[in-house]
Amino acid sequence: MKNYTAMLICLFAAFTTQAQDTATPFDKAPEWSKSAIWYQIFPERFRNGDSKNNPRPENINIPPMGQIAPEGWAVNQWTENWYGQQGWEQGRDFNDNMYYRRYGGDLQGILDKLDYLQNLGVTALFMNPLNDAPSAHKYDARHYHHIDVNFGPDPEGDNKLIATENPADPATWQWTAADKLFLKLVKEVHKRGMRIIMDYSWNHTGVMFWAWQDVLKNQSHSPYKDWYEIRSFDDSNTPGDEFAYTGWVGVSSLPEIRKVDVATPRVNGQPYEGNINEGAKKHIFAVTERWLAPDGNAANGIDGFRLDVADQIGLGFWRDFRREVRRIKHDAYLVGEIWWDTWPDTLMDPTPYTHGDIFDAVMFYQAYRPARYFFAKTDFPLDALQFKNELEHQWNRLPEDKRYAMMNVSSTHDTPRLLTDFYNTNKYKFQANPRENPNYHTGKPDEETYKRLRLYLVHLFTSIGAPQIWNGEEMGMWGADDPDPRKPLWWPDYQFADETRNNIQPGEKEYDQVGFNQQTFDWYKKLIAIRKDNPVLVNGKIEFILAEGGELIYRRYNDNKEITVYFNNTAIGQDYHLGSAILVDLLNGKRESGILHLEPLQAAILKPEMITY
After folding, report:
1. Cis preceding linkage at 483, omega within 30
2. In this protein, which residues make up the domain named Glycosyl hydrolase family 13 catalytic (predicted)?
3. Where are the domains of the chain?
4. Which residues contact 45 (CB under 8 A, 6 or more apart)?
C-alpha cells in the first residue's frame, strides 16, 4: 500500500429507483432505509421559493416569554454576510440577533429543488421540524398537527382556519394551505422514487402551544394541567406568581411533557423505563396518523419519523409509539436522536434502542467521531488500528439488521459543518464555536482540509449504514457549531457578499468569498453514484484486511461481488495531494504490475491534478 499515488477508481452508475417493500417484519428495519442516501433539510434556510409568505413580526413573537421582534425587524437578505449586521441588528449582540433572524425558506423552495436533489442522487429526505412554531428551528411547536403557516402560501388564511378548530379534537382539524402544500411535496417526492420523514420532539412543546396556553390561562383548572411537568400553580390570593414548571434542560420556552410510570432512575444520557401523560400521548398518536396516512391511505403519507432528544422519553412510550406507527404503515422508518452519555467524552450506547421494539436506527454519531479522528488532523488522532477497533465495537453491539439501517450522520443542524470540523483540531463538538473558543477557525478552510475531507467521504459512501448529507454540505459550505451550520444555502444562481473570515472577533476584518463549489458537488455526486451502482456497498459484509498507521484496507463483499477500499493517510500534504483512496472490484477486475483494470465495468482513474481545488 505504501507509495501509492493519489487516485480514486470511480465506478459510474445510472440512477435507479428503489424497490418498494412488500412486507417488513415488526422488529426489522425497512429494506429501503438500508439503501437510502439521506439529505437533511433545514426548511427555513434551504430555499425561499415564495417571498409572499415571508414571516412578519407577529409570526415570531412569543409574548409570555417577553421575546418580541426588535423595532424595525425585517427578513434578512439571503446573500448577505452571515457575520454582518443589517438594519435592525445594528448594535445588538450577534447571538441575540440569531434568535430573530429569518430568511424565508419554505416548502415551495424545497419543491423547486427536488430535481436538484434527484440529480445529486438523493433518495430520502429528512426534514427538520415543519410543525407550526415561532422559532426558526421549530422545536417549540405551536401546533403539532399543522405545518408552519410561513412555510405555505397563505399564512394569514391558515391562521384564521386554525382558529376555527378545537385542537384537542382531531375531528375538527382542517387542512391548511401549508398542510396541503406539504402533502404535495410528499407526492412529488414519492413520484421520484424517494422517501421523506418528519422530525418531531414529543418531549416538549413551545410556550405558544395551544394546550400550554390553556394552562397559562386557567392554571390548576386547565384540562391540560397534567400534560406538563408543573411544580406549582399561581395562587390568585397572593401578589406574586408561584407558577413553576420544568423546561427541557432548564429552557423555559420548552415546557416538558409530563413523564409517568417511571420505573427506573431518570438520568440524562441514559435510557429509562417510563411513559408520558396519556392525554398528551393520545394527541401525539393522532398527529402521527395524520401524517402517515393523511387520507386514510398510508401510501400517500410520510415514510417515518426522526425523533428528537429520544433519551428524554421513557422506553415504554417508544415501544407504544413503534406499535402505533407500524400499525399504520408497516415499512415506516424510525430513527432516534440519542447523543451524549457524558459530555463531551462519551456517546450513548444505542443498544437499548435497537433491539427491534423501539427504533430502526439512531443518528450514528458514534461512527463519525472516530472517523474524524482518523481522517482529519486533530489533537486526538487515531491510527488505522484504533479506528478499525472503534468501528467494530460500535457495529458489534448492534443487531446485524440495524447496522445497515443506521443513519450515518457526519454533520447536522447541531454540529459544525464537515469542512470546519476538519479544519479545527479540537475535541469533537467541544468549544466548537468562536464564542467559547476565540481561536476557532470559522473561515474558508485550507487546501489540506479539503483533501482530508474527500478521503473521509470515500469512507462514508463505502461503509456500513446509510450515508447522510446535511443541508448544503455538497455545496462546499463551512461553518462552526450552532448557529453557524444554519446559514442560508449557497445556491449557484445567487451572488453572495463576502463573509467575515474572523467572524465576530474584534480587530481588523478579513473576508472570504463564498458560494456554490461545483467540484465539491461533483465529488458527492460521484460517490453517490458509486454506491448506488454497487449494491455490495449497501448490503455486503465488511472485513478489514489491513489497519496499520495511516493505512487502512477493507473489503465489502457478498456472494456475487467484492469491492476492496484502500486508504493511505500518510501522504496528505505532499505531492500526492489526497493520500490514496482506491476502490477495486476484485472479482470482475484484475491487477497486473500495479495497474488496475476494471474491464467489465465503466471506470475512470482520476489523477491528483484532475481533482484538487
Report:
1. yes
2. 40-531
3. 1-29+360-613, 211-256
4. 103, 105, 136, 471, 486, 487, 488, 489
Would 1-29+360-613 and 211-256 be classified into the same CATH topology?
A: no
Percent of the chain exceeding pLDDT 90 equals: 82
Tell me which amino acid residue 310 is: A
Tens of pLDDT, residues 295-330: 999 999 999 999 999 999 999 999 999 999 999 999
Residue 535: φ, ψ to 5° = -55, -20
User: Which candidate, 127, 135, 106, places its Cα nearest to that of 200?
Assistant: 127
62, pLDDT greater than 70 = yes
Extract the C-alpha cell encoding 99: 434568535
Contact 248, 308 (CB under 8 A): no
Mean pLDDT rounded to a whole number for the chain: 89
Residue 179: all three cell numbers together: 398542510
Nearest partner of 75 among 43, 92, 97, 46, judged by Cα: 97
In eight-state DSSP terms, residue 607 is P
Report whether CATH 1.10.600 matches the domain 211-256: no
Cell of 78: 439571503
Grid cell in block for residue 130: 415543519
Q: Which three three-digit cell numbers place residue 136?
A: 426558526
| The predicted structure's pLDDT at residue 399 | 96
Are 134 and 213 in contact, with CB atoms under 8 Å apart? no
Environment class of residue 595 by beta-carbon count within 10 Å: exposed (0-12), middle (13-18) or buried (19+)?
exposed
Is the pLDDT at 581 greater than 60? The verdict is no
Looking at the DSSP bridge assignments, the partners of residue 38 are: 124, 468
More confident residue, 159 or 65: 159
CB count within 10 Å of CB 5 equals 15
The predicted model gives 383-411 an average pLDDT of 97
Residues forming a β-bridge with 340: 347
Specify the fold of 1-29+360-613.
TIM Barrel (3.20.20)
Task: Using the predicted structure, report yes or no on whether residue 602 has a pLDDT greater than 90.
Answer: no
Closest to 30 measured CA to CA, from 314, 325, 300: 325
Q: Are 338 and 37 a contacting pair, CB within 8 Å?
A: no
Q: pLDDT per residue over 167-224, tens digit each?
A: 999 999 999 999 999 999 999 999 999 999 999 999 999 999 999 999 999 999 999 9
pLDDT at 402 over 50: yes
**Distance between CA atoms of 265 and 372, rounded to whole angstroms?**
33
Helices 278-292 and 315-328 pack at an angle, to 10 degrees, of: 30
HSE, side-chain direction, 13 A CA sphere, residue 161:
16
User: What confidence category does residue 4 fall into, taking pLDDT thresholds of 50, 70 and 90?
Assistant: very low
Enter the C-alpha cell of residue 508. Answer: 481588523
CA distance linking residue 137 with residue 400, whole number of Å:
34
The DSSP call for residue 352 is G
Q: What is the pLDDT of residues 330-386, one digit of tens each?
A: 999 999 999 999 999 999 999 999 999 999 999 999 999 999 999 999 999 999 999
Measuring CA to CA, which residue among 533, 411, 530, 522 is closest to residue 474? 522
CA–CA separation, 19 and 34 (whole Å): 12
